[in-house]
Design brief:
The complex is a heterodimer of chains A (814) and B (326).
Chain A lengths: L3 E4 L18 H5 L15 E7 L5 E7 L1 H5 L3 E6 L23 E2 L5 E7 L2 H9 L2 E6 L6 H5 L15 E9 L2 H5 L4 E9 L11 E6 L5 E5 L4 H12 L6 E5 L14 H13 L3 E4 L2 H7 L6 E9 L5 E11 L7 H10 L10 E8 L15 H17 L4 H7 L6 E2 L5 E2 L4 H12 L1 H4 L7 E11 L14 E7 L5 E5 L8 H13 L6 E5 L16 H28 L6 E4 L2 E4 L2 E7 H12 L2 E7 L19 E12 L6 E11 L6 H20 L32 E7 L21 H13 L2 E2 L1 E2 L3 H12 L5 E2 L15 E3 L17
Chain B lengths: L7 E3 L4 H11 L2 E4 L5 H6 L7 E4 L9 E4 L3 E5 L4 H6 L1 H6 L1 H8 L4 H6 L2 H5 L12 H6 L28 H7 L3 E6 L2 E6 L19 E7 L5 E8 L10 E9 L5 E9 L6 E2 L1 H5 L8 H12 L12 H20 L1
Parallel strand pairs in B: 1-3, 2-3
Antiparallel strand pairs in B: 4-5, 5-8, 6-7, 6-8, 9-10, 10-11, 11-12
Classes of the chains: A alpha/beta (814), B alpha+beta (326).
């Protein structure tokens, strides 16, 4: 792989921001010194194992743990009765139990837990637990989930097994559609996939004799785990400490509070000894919370120039067995269609169903890669119908910067046009698109993603991120923040922001993160929020520290305060650089004058203009933009698709660290490639108890380095006014254009449409055969078989262009 | 993590000690590189109480002989050694290629050609953890009664998944097996049976000692492998072919063997018959590919849908023969 880094950031006038400093944890990672959760051991530590359901849906009639408890070496056995308080990441879906109480809802649902002297004994004890199940009918698909049923999987939800349904209309879609010169309707299916982090989830709990609990866990959200632990264990949150260990990859799969975290804590309390659990790979597949399989129908009216007059989007999501983030996921499948292209009238209807499979949740791009795939393939078809170049057409219809969309999302900087220009030029698009020989093709797709969610998971009006700084008289600075590095480099971003303001190098800043006893709250590493939010909090704390030092140095040294600059570990007079003190001396002066030097900074996102129910999902301080061109090679005899190269441009505003940003882009391309080419989180049918097809690293196919394409990345865009130093997100957005760019390139290569993810060889071959028989050359879900669901009447919201105020119209009396 | 079940490890220094140990211990399995057995033990597919390591037996790791008289490869030679051995690469490229296509460099460093030739048959319903298999009430290959690939079938349909085995059969290699009763030499084709459980025609205590390559000469062979990714994956289809040529290019003998479509390396004489006595040209190659396609019977036991895998037989046989025609 030869990766090319194109960046304007090299000319950054700043000392740290925009420069590729080494990650603060790089040495520890490459030398193996970094300690992940499973590396931890404590004296007298016990090992835990979970007994999981081997049936997909059943009532628990009886659990007998006596034989397990009697096994030598077993210290404690727990069942659902010991932990009856439900939990769940969203306040509206508190539908999980640490151990199932009455019902099991999928193969892999945890039923009982054992702590024993070693893992082997704990595993053996699990086999000695007798569980009697009364089987219930199992639901295995979206269509089954939409159907009426007598034994719903949950007793909450909107209708039967429909967990959540949503209907929103901005403007008047039907009226606007009548003005269209072309109306096109397509259906798409985006299959499920999982995060596949290298590190399996692990957790270690310690119960101290004074009644305090400490939990180390590979979690992306220590603050939410802290809340769930306190609630389920009935403990004062002040006596619970959650320490997030560095994650060996998360990608959204470690964003929920999990059964095993609560269970080891309860086992530690029950035994008075430390208890650790490290899940098997198969258990990680059971935790899942990955991509929702989503069936979509999109109908768009356009004019001949490609401009959109109205769009009607329907999404049906398979949520698996629990709520998780699902209500947010459902809204997200409809939220961001409007932030790339102007959509003056827009209707979204979405429904998420429960099925007896592993729970879905937030995987990189949370709820938006599915509609983005649909939209970008759909636009490609529209461009062809209108005889327009798909790159050129997209450029014509861009949502303008500093605008408000029809669904009331406030757009700031918007560099999608620059992204399109960059990849069109670099890829040779104009020379290659529709001009390569049969079997080779080029495809383009765009996307956008949030830089942090505008609202927290649970309603509160406190900051989303806070940073404390401690300045030491030795010149050291320590930054404390609840954020957690999951490999994306958030610790390095925190250090860089502080270092920039204080004139230090990132390595001068010690970071202490993800520890609920030591660090102020940050909501967690999800929704691409950390650079945006901890960045702002860090800058505020650092600026306050800088001001305190500047006041003290100005007074002591007689330099006018406004002339002081902080650079290269010195505080000096800008007009007389020889005149100044070292940073350590500055701290000493300030400490002598005012006592210990410490500051805090916080960040709360700006309030979004939408006021309708559902307006909470979609708003963000800023939106990143991406455009990708993929080149593919298709073997028409086998249907095998290879992707030799991807060109991708990302509007990041201002990169804090370009090398880390490029790393996120390349990782996103890799993950997007896996989704479009091969990854499948699928289950056998009910006759096989809805078991996962292949919960292993060997048989869950994910690309190796040999399948990875060459990537040429471009960081483009103008600094974002809402972003810290102008930065926007990069961790998730660049995944989004990859699946549709590859699917569109496939069409350019051999003239067939695969309207589903993944685009498997057999799908390509079937589409090709259909074309050879004179058919349309399409493989994908049948439009005729799209399930009809009786959505409620949409909530009607007047758009900004209609003079709306962001609120929904009162529902008409029926 | 998944843990191994407890077992006793025995480390003999000679083949004789090994076979004696097996005879005396009874419930025992031989292990060479461990890349097949140990994962299977973690999943409780095999739970021998005794494991006899072959790692300390020098005679199993030698390569001797010449291309003119034939070559003897010790069963303990690693796949990496085999794939890189200059004489094998030059005179038996299909053998080297098949070895090089197994899994990943790390597993080839541990895995041996003997282990590869004896690889346990594989299946989507069998190569799963104990807990997963319990969720479908197990299968007849281990702990259960049904073959989930074909529930009405009286036999197990686990699939032959070795890359080396189809090549060994196609080139007419021979094998030597040792036991406390002595040694015997058999054609590689006689080792395999079309049954997912009883897939080897040897006694459990018989130890594969050597892999004997026939003299190189007026024949060429190749191996083509279909799999999802360029590494890690077992074949979902293997095509091994050996063709003997007359000086004028006419095919005088042919052996075409398919991997991963049956419980044994499946020889397709119909395909060979389509080209023997004829030159290799697009017409004869197409006829052979069509003849190979018909008997191939992929089942729902590997990655990829079976209909597509069956279709690929035609393509891969054609491509293998096209390579040999060049």
């Amino acid at each position: 792989m030869t990766d090319v880094l194109h960046r304007a950031a090299d000319v950054s006038p700043r000392a740290v921001i925009g420069k590729s400093w080494r990650k603060v944890d790089a040495s520890a990672k490459v030398t193996g010194e970094l300690r992940f959760a499973d590396d931890l051991t404590l004296p007298r530590m016990l090992h835990a194992k979970l007994l999981r359901s081997h049936v997909p849906h059943a009532r628990i009639r009886r659990i007998d743990t006596r034989r397990a408890a009697a096994l030598p070496g077993v210290a404690a056995v727990l069942t659902g009765r010991d932990l009856p308080t439900p939990f769940g990441i969203l306040p509206v879906s508190q539908d999980e139990h640490a151990l199932c109480v009455d019902l099991v809802r999928f193969v892999g649902d945890p039923v009982a837990a054992v702590a024993a002297r070693d893992e082997e004994t704990a595993a053996e004890a699990c086999t000695l637990i007798d569980v009697e199940y009364e089987p219930l009918p199992a639901v295995g698909s979206i269509a089954e989930g939409l159907a009426p049923c007598e034994t719903p999987i949950h007793d909450h939800g909107d209708r039967g097994n429909v967990h959540k349904h949503v209907a929103l209309e901005f403007g008047d879609v039907d009226a606007a559609m009548r003005d269209a010169e072309l109306v096109r309707e397509d259906v798409f299916f985006y299959g499920g996939s999982t995060h596949l982090p290298m590190e399996e989830h692990a957790a270690l709990a310690h119960w101290s004799p004074d009644g305090t609990l400490t939990l180390w866990s590979s979690t992306q959200t220590p603050h939410y785990v802290h809340r769930a632990l306190s609630a389920v264990l009935g403990l004062d949150p002040a006596r619970v400490r959650v320490i997030a260990t560095p994650n060996g990859g998360g990608f959204g799969g470690k964003s929920d509070p999990f059964s095993h975290e609560i269970v080891v804590a309860a086992l530690a309390r029950a035994t008075g000894r430390p208890v650790k659990v490290c899940l098997t790979r198969e258990e990680v597949f059971a935790c899942h919370r990955g991509r929702h399989p989503t069936l979509m129908r999109v109908r768009t009216g356009v004019r001949r120039d490609g401009s959109i007059v109205a769009m009607d989007f329907t999404a049906l999501l398979d949520g698996g067995a629990y709520g998780s983030y699902g209500v947010a996921s459902t809204y997200y499948t409809g939220a961001l269609q409007t932030v790339t292209y102007q959509v003056p009238h827009y209707r979204f209807r979405g429904a998420r169903v429960f099925t007896n499979t592993a729970p879905c949740g937030p995987k990189r791009g949370h709820g938006t890669p599915q509609p983005r795939f649909a939209l970008e393939c759909h636009l490609d078809k529209i461009a062809e119908a209108l005889a327009l170049d798909p790159a050129e057409m997209r450029k014509r219809i861009l949502q303008p910067p500093h605008s408000v969309t029809a669904n009331w999302l406030r757009i700031g900087s918007m560099g999608l046009g620059a992204c399109i220009d960059a990849v069109v030029a670099a890829s040779g698009w104009r020379e290659k698109f529709r001009r390569l020989p049969y079997g080779r093709g080029m495809g383009i797709a765009c996307s956008s993603y949030i830089s942090g969610a505008g609202l927290p998971i649970y309603w509160n009006d406190m900051p989303h991120s806070s940073v404390q700084l401690k300045l030491d008289r030795s010149g050291g600075v320590t930054a404390f923040c609840g954020s957690i590095d999951i490999g994306q480099g958030s610790d390095s971003v925190l250090a860089a922001c502080v270092a920039e303001v204080l004139g230090l190098a990132p390595g001068d800043v010690h970071v202490v993160t993800g520890d609920t006893n030591l660090t102020p709250v940050d909501l967690g590493s999800y929704s691409s929020r950390v650079t945006m939010m901890t960045g702002h909090a860090a800058i505020q704390a650092a600026e306050r520290a800088r001001d305190a030092l500047a006041d003290a140095v100005a007074a002591r040294c007689g330099i006018p305060r406004e002339r002081l600059v902080f650079t290269e570990r010195r505080v000096l007079d800008a007009e007389d650089p020889e005149h100044g003190v070292s940073f350590a001396e500055a701290v000493q002066i300030a400490e002598a004058m005012h006592g210990a030097v410490g500051t805090v900074g916080s960040y709360t996102p700006p309030r979004a203009p939408g006021r309708y129910k559902g307006a909470g999902v979609g708003p963000s301080p800023a939106y990143s933009y991406s455009c990708a061109v993929a080149e593919v090679e298709v073997d028409p005899a086998t249907g095998i698709v290879r992707v030799p190269k991807v060109w991708i441009a990302h509007d990041i505003g201002q990169a804090i660290n370009p090398t880390l940003a490029i790393g996120q882009i390349e990782g996103s391309v890799y993950m997007g490639l896996g989704e479009i080419l091969m990854e499948e989180m699928t289950y056998r049918d009910a006759s096989r108890n809805l078991v996962h097809h292949h919960p292993s690293m060997l048989e869950y196919k994910s690309p190796t380095t040999l399948e990875m394409c060459e990537v040429e990345s471009f960081l483009v865009g103008e600094p974002e006014p809402q972003g810290p130093f102008g930065a926007k997100e990069v961790g998730q957005g660049p995944l989004l254009p990859i699946p549709p760019a590859v699917a569109n390139a496939l069409y350019d290569a051999i003239g067939v449409r695969v309207d589903q993810v993944p685009c498997t060889p057999q799908a390509v071959l079937r589409a090709l055969k259909e074309k050879q028989r004179g058919g349309a050359g399409r493989y994908g879900p049948s439009p005729a078989a799209f399930p009809e669901y009786a959505f409620p009447e949409p909530l009607r919201v007047r758009t900004p262009a209609q003079g709306g105020d962001g609120r929904a119209a009162a529902r008409e009396a029926r | 993590m998944l843990r191994l079940p407890p077992f006793r490890l025995v480390e003999p220094r000679t083949v004789y000690q090994a076979v004696v140990a097996h005879a005396e211990l009874g419930d025992a399995a031989y292990v060479a590189g461990g890349t097949d057995l140990y994962p299977n033990m973690k999943r409780r597919q095999q739970t021998p109480r005794n494991v006899i390591s072959l790692a300390r037996i020098p005679e199993l790791t030698e390569i001797s002989g010449t291309p003119a008289e034939g070559v003897r490869i010790g069963a303990g030679v690693t796949l990496t050694q085999l794939a890189r051995h200059p004489m094998i690469v030059e005179h038996y490229p299909a053998v080297a290629r098949a070895a090089a296509m197994v899994s990943t460099p790390l597993l080839r460093n541990m895995g041996t050609i003997g282990g590869n030739l004896l690889l346990d048959t594989r299946c989507n319903y069998y190569d799963q953890t104990y807990e997963w298999r319990k969720a479908i009430d197990f299968c007849m290959k281990r702990d259960g009664a049904v073959c989930w690939v074909a529930p009405s079938s009286p036999r197990c349909w686990a699939v032959q998944s070795s890359d080396g085995a189809p090549v060994a059969v196609a080139i007419g290699a021979e094998l030597t097996l040792a036991s406390v009763h002595g040694a015997r030499r058999i054609p590689a084709s006689a080792l395999y049976r079309n049954d997912g459980i009883q897939y080897l025609a040897k006694e459990p205590g018989e130890l594969l000692v050597s892999y004997l390559l026939p003299p190189a000469g007026a024949w060429r062979a190749t191996y083509h492998k279909l799999r999802r990714r360029g590494a890690f994956d077992f074949p979902v289809l293997g095509v091994a072919a050996r063709l003997d040529f007359a000086p004028d290019g006419v095919v005088t003998a042919a052996r075409i063997v398919l991997g991963a479509v049956a419980s044994l390396p499946l020889e397709v004489p119909e395909a060979a018959a389509a080209i023997v006595g004829k030159p290799l040209d697009p017409t004869t190659i197409a006829a052979a590919a069509e003849a190979a396609f018909r008997p191939a019977k992929p089942m729902d036991n590997t990655d990829f849908p079976l209909a597509w895998r069956k279709e690929m037989v035609r393509v891969y046989v054609r491509r293998a023969l096209e390579e040999l025609a060049r």
